[in-house]
Design a protein that fits this description.
single chain; alpha/beta; Growth Hormone, Chain: A; Glycerol-3-phosphate (1)-acyltransferase; Rossmann fold; 4 domains; nine-stranded mixed β-sheet; eight-stranded mixed β-sheet; 51% helix; 14% strand
Length: 1139
């Protein structure tokens, strides 16, 4: 996992070490650069020293500082392993104070000999300090902090070089500048010792280590041991040494390059040193972001090529320099005024930045891949290797310069040498280079974002990585961004395709033959070898945009191999031309792609299952994992208004998202503009987060009004105009509704004058027709310059719906933005739909299913919805489904059975989904739709309080007689019910559970569900596969002669006997048995004896046979399509009294 590396600067585990290291490097470079300035600009002027001698002396100074690393590093490594490193560091820093006094004396005296002795002493203390600082880092930092820690140390070192160079060169340029430099050296050394005392304690890694005083022998032994630790360590040692070779060359030759080649002053030298140091630091710090805390050499080949490109171009750019005609040196301003010089500046920065990108991973690999008890000695081996490269570089540079070479020729020669090194690295690590190039291209074209990268490591060494398969880009994306060389299961036929073969070089491909049963066993053995294997469980590219059939193979592999399942979601690639969803989803050339790794899961299959049942269980469990992955990776923590704008951005503003009986299509652009205009008006008429009533039928106007309120932070309260004036007035009081939006036309056509008049006594009625002429220019301007969206949380109320009030005053159900969007995401993760679908929504928006399923889900998901105002128009609805080419229909059994009676068998030709809820779907209704229309009814189950869907059958997972499986992200609890032996009372919780109720005892105050669990009031049974069977409402059970009888069972009997006639059962008090059942049905031939015979034939208890059966003209139905049981109860009482 990637940590913010800068947080380490606040942590005592790191900060004291950083400060100590920074001050030490600053001290070294302060003195070295002060000495160089003294040689070049003071002694040379006084003695008439020629340029060649000056160059040799400055090169010798750099070499003298490096030479002690070769001599003393091995001894330093032994000391760091034998004794606690924090103690060794303190003694080293104490010695630095004495060295500082020696350095001050050498500068004040102007002695070159004494100065060279001091610079050697500084190098010696740094040689002892080096193994300590690098080997102590893994003892104090976590593994995923090492890249960031090393980057900061590396940056600090070069910043110290920068500051030391600036101070040393600048201050020494002043008259008597040597005095403040000498004082500063002593102060820095004392401060460095003080900071070293705060380094956290650590134990001795290998106290048994024997100190070998023979430095030459020990140096050889340390080098031999370091280079025997494996190919990865060897390459890291050589690579790190080569970096210091190049880095020291540039830093040591900058003075000669600036003065001799560029003919510039000391300020330009300072500028180049600053530039080089910043570049090194920037490149080093970039590692933590690119590698995300992972210790890897992934970007080393690219960095090597970058160094080569920058240094070669630097040599080329130097050839075009135009020198002054006189002998004056360029000032910094004059230097920057030449365009050619900017090319040189860019080249120097690129060499430095790629150098930082190159060296930090190599240093971290040395720390991460070595044993603690010998880590310091390997760090010493690294210091020795670095010093060999640097001294060798200094010697070669000195020899070449003494033979007449210019600095620009020297740079060119080392650039060619670096090219050879880069080619060697690329040949050794071709995977890393190819992955780096692919990552660059993917990020450039698709702005790829990786989330949950740390979960790959959490999965352990043995994991089955399962992902959704939306495009041909999926395998290359995972191969490019996953660490190491993951294994991919590839179909043998696919592996032969010419354009697949280059991708197979990135990974360890395992060809699988689906017809060969032994393939699975071979894969299990591979995973048992501690491998990560990537499998797409769908076995093919999706052609729906959602999950397709899941194969059992990955689940069986994880189970048998004892591996973790690591789900990964690829999102965004489905919009590219590499998917098979053209026409079903909007096409985008370069969409943003997000790859999300979820936390790993253990996967176990019941040992008692064998054969086919075991495979089915594996597939079902794996599907649940994938469905849960789709839900968790869907953006839900946003407002409905934000979600609508996101849909507009994805689908395009001109996409037709809604239509109504006026047949005037509504586009996303038109919807948002009209909502913003109306919203700007309502902003002035209402208050933030105020509940505003909407009294409108299914229409474009209702949708615009709903989102107009959302756009200004108001809460729509959907009013049920079928519940009656008194109940509706009570609902407004309970919900503290002061303003109601409606339409004069709707009120006239619906004959709601009396209802609106009653509401007007307690609320302000706003008619849409009256608002239009009142809209001013400022309101219309909001369509193009909308108001700043109020600060609304996804967890704030988004809508208020009301219960029917059958048990007293209506309750307000308050749903948040996150509730509704979670339910939409839950449905989208189970059922596929796309922009070729058309939803026919005749369920009113005050009905939770009509709001979420019929309105919000299509609008948010890019599916057109057709709004029809009245589901009771039995003859019109089928005709309009046919006319609109609808593919998705929502309804209740009452409505659907009515449509079936009058519809032509071709009216539902285009319908692929019919979702039914609110009441049980009768078997006869199900058969009619299958036989007459060839469409399967997918029964679901929900409640207003759950936004509303709890469970639903899907085309992939369906079982007759059930309402489907629980939606992803939800938890269930069954509490026992007295007298009920099967199942229990269902309680649910999850992200779609309401915020709470508005009740008449505390109007306007949200009363949340207890502990987040909602009591559905239903008695259900859940089978082994997770399918829910509704046994009845807890209040729809009657206690007869001490036994609990489900009224739903009785209604099912009546439906079986008289399928074309609706029926309803209620329980009334009975003096003899406690309660009696009364059946009301529209079947004229209905009688008790027929029910008794049916019960006897089907082993149904005799207590379930109603005591009274009445034939009636009609069964009362609520506006939502549910049976009106309160009205039926009153009717039953009336009929009994007449008996």
């Amino acid at each position: 996992m990637m940590h913010n590396q800068f947080l380490l600067m606040k942590d005592r585990r790191f900060l004291p070490l950083f400060v100590t290291q920074f001050l030490g490097a600053f001290h070294d470079n302060l003195f070295k650069n002060a000495l160089i300035v003294m040689i070049l600009y003071q002694i040379a002027t006084q003695t008439g020293m020629d340029a060649k001698t000056q160059s040799l002396l400055t090169t010798a100074a750099a070499g003298t500082l490096v030479l002690p690393f070769f001599i003393f590093s091995a001894l330093g490594g032994q000391l760091a392993d034998k004794y606690p490193k924090h103690i060794v560091i303190k003694y080293i820093k104490l010695a630095e104070i004495l060295i500082a006094f020696l350095g001050a004396a050498s500068l004040l005296s102007g002695s070159i000999v004494l100065s060279f002795i001091n610079i050697f002493a500084l190098g010696a203390q740094s040689a002892f300090f080096g193994p300590c600082k690098y080997s102590i880092l893994p003892e104090h930092l976590h593994r995923d902090e090492l890249i960031g820690g090393n980057a900061l140390l590396n940056t600090g070192t070069f910043l110290a070089i920068l500051v030391g160079t600036i101070v040393g060169t600048t201050v020494m340029g002043y008259e008597n500048g040597v005095i403040p430099v000498a004082i500063l050296m002593i102060l820095v050394a004392v401060t460095g010792y003080g900071s070293s005392r705060y380094i956290p304690t650590c134990h001795a890694a290998a106290p048994q280590t024997r100190i070998n005083p023979n430095l030459a022998v020990k140096t050889y032994d340390v080098l031999k041991y370091s280079f025997s630790q494996g190919w990865e360590i060897t390459l890291s040692l050589l690579g790190k040494g080569w970096f210091f070779c190049i880095g020291s060359l540039f830093l040591s030759q900058f003075p000669n390059y600036v003065k001799g080649t560029l003919q510039a002053q000391e300020t330009v030298l300072t500028f180049f040193t600053v530039l080089f140091s910043i570049g090194i630091g920037a490149g080093g710090l970039l590692n933590n972001r690119l590698l995300r805390g992972n210790v890897s050499a992934a970007f080393v080949p690219l960095a090597a090529l970058g160094i080569t490109a920058g240094s070669l171009d630097l040599s080329a750019a130097t050839a075009y320099i135009v020198h002054n005609t006189d002998d004056t040196l360029l000032t910094l301003g004059q230097f920057l005024s030449h365009l050619t010089h900017w090319r040189i500046i860019l080249d120097v920065f690129l060499v430095a930045a790629f150098g930082g990108l190159f060296v930090v991973p190599l240093a971290t690999i040395l720390q991460d891949r070595t044993k603690e008890e010998t880590r310091a000695q390997i760090m010493a081996g690294s210091s020795i290797t670095d010093s060999i490269f640097m001294v060798g570089c200094a010697v070669i540079a000195a020899l070449l310069i003494s033979s007449g070479w210019e600095v620009k020729q020297l740079f060119f020669a080392f650039s060619l040498a670096n090219l050879v090194v880069a080619i060697f690295i690329c040949r050794l690590l071709p995977d890393y280079l190819l992955k780096t190039i692919l990552q660059f291209l993917f990020k450039l074209l698709y702005r790829v974002e990786i989330r949950g990268f740390e979960n790959i490591e959490k999965a352990g060494k043995r994991a089955v990585i399962v992902g959704n398969h939306v495009s041909l880009l999926d395998p290359p994306l995972l191969a490019a961004f996953m660490p190491g060389r993951p294994m991919f299961a590839v179909n043998t036929q696919v592996a032969q395709w010419w354009w697949v073969k280059p991708f197979l070089r990135l990974v360890d491909a395992f060809p699988i033959d689906p017809t060969n049963p032994y393939t699975l066993k071979s894969l299990i053995r591979k995973v048992e070898e501690d491998r990560h294997i990537v499998i797409f469980p769908e076995g093919r590219l999706t052609s729906t945009g959602s999950l397709m059939k899941i194969y059992d193979g990955p689940g069986l592999i994880a189970d048998k191999a004892g591996a973790m399942i690591l789900p990964v979601r690829i999102d965004g690639a489905q919009y590219t031309g590499f998917s098979r969803l053209r026409g079903k989803l909007p096409f985008k050339r370069f969409p943003k792609i997000t790859i999300t790794f979820l936390p790993p899961l253990s996967f176990k299959i019941d040992e008692g299952l064998k054969g086919r049942s075991r495979r089915a269980s594996a597939a079902r469990q794996l599907y649940d994992v994938m469905e849960d992955m789709m839900l968790k990776t869907t953006e839900r923590e946003q407002t409905l208004w934000e979600a609508l704008h996101k849909a507009k951005m994805i689908q395009g503003g001109d996409f037709i998202c809604a239509e109504d009986v006026e047949f005037s299509p509504l586009t996303y652009k038109s919807l948002t503009r009209r909502a913003q205009i109306l919203g700007s008006y309502l902003y002035e008429m209402t208050e933030l987060k105020e509940n505003v009533g909407i009294l409108l039928p299914n229409s474009i106007g209702a949708i615009v009004s709903f989102f107009a309120l959302q756009s200004v932070g108001r809460i729509p309260a959907m009013l049920n105009f079928t519940m009656g004036a008194q109940a509706l007035s009570s609902a407004c009081t309970t919900g503290q509704i002061r303003t109601v939006l409606t339409s004069r036309r709707f009120v006239d056509l619906g004959r709601l004058d009396a209802l609106v008049e009653t509401l007007g006594q307690t609320t302000r009625i706003l008619y849409l027709e009256d608002i239009v002429p009142e809209l001013k220019f400022k309101h219309k301007l909001a369509a193009f310059f909308p108001r700043t969206l109020p600060v609304i949380s996804p967890f704030d109320p988004a809508v208020v719906l009301f219960t029917s009030g059958s048990e007293g005053s209506p309750k307000g159900v308050v749903l948040s933005h996150a509730n509704l969007l979670s339910n939409i995401a839950q449905l989208a993760s189970r059922v596929s739909f796309n922009r070729q679908d058309i939803v026919f929504n005749c369920l009113p928006m005050f009905h939770s299913f009509g709001l979420t399923g019929g309105t919000l889900l299509p609008l948010i998901s890019g599916v057109k919805t057709f709004m029809y105002p009245n589901p009771l128009h039995i003859r019109i609805v089928p005709e309009l489904v046919y006319a609109t080419n609808a593919t998705i229909l929502f309804g209740t059994d009452t409505f659907l059975s009515g449509y079936a009676r009058v519809a032509n068998s071709y009216d539902f030709y285009g319908v692929r989904y019919i979702f039914a809820g609110a009441e049980k779907v009768k078997e006869q209704t199900r058969k009619t739709y299958m036989n007459k229309f060839g469409v399967r009814i997918l029964e679901g189950y929900g409640a207003t309080e759950t936004s509303p869907v709890i469970a639903v059958n899907s085309p992939m997972h369906s079982k007759d007689g059930t309402v489907g499986r629980i939606l992803s992200g939800m938890n269930v609890r069954l509490d026992p019910v007295e007298g009920v032996t099967q199942g229990g009372r269902l309680f649910v919780n999850g992200p779609n559970i309401m915020l709470g109720y508005y009740k008449d005892d505390h109007p306007g105050i949200i009363q949340p569900p207890e502990d987040g669990w909602h009591d559905t009031g239903d008695i259900v049974d859940i089978d082994a596969e997770g399918y829910i069977r509704i046994l009845g409402r807890a209040k729809r059970f009657a206690k007869i002669a001490g036994e609990m009888v489900s009224l739903g069972v009785v209604e099912n009997m009546a439906a079986a006997l008289w399928p074309d006639h609706p029926s309803a059962v209620v329980a009334l008090p009975d003096d003899r048995k406690g309660e009696q059942l009364v059946l009301l049905t529209t079947a004229p031939e209905a009688n008790r004896s027929a029910l008794s015979a049916y019960a006897n034939e089907n082993n149904i208890p005799a207590l379930a046979v109603p005591a009274q059966v009445f034939s009636v003209d009609s069964i009362p139905v609520l506006g939502t399509g549910k049976t009106d049981y309160p009205a039926i109860l009153e009717k039953a009482k009336s009929l009994l009294e007449k008996e």
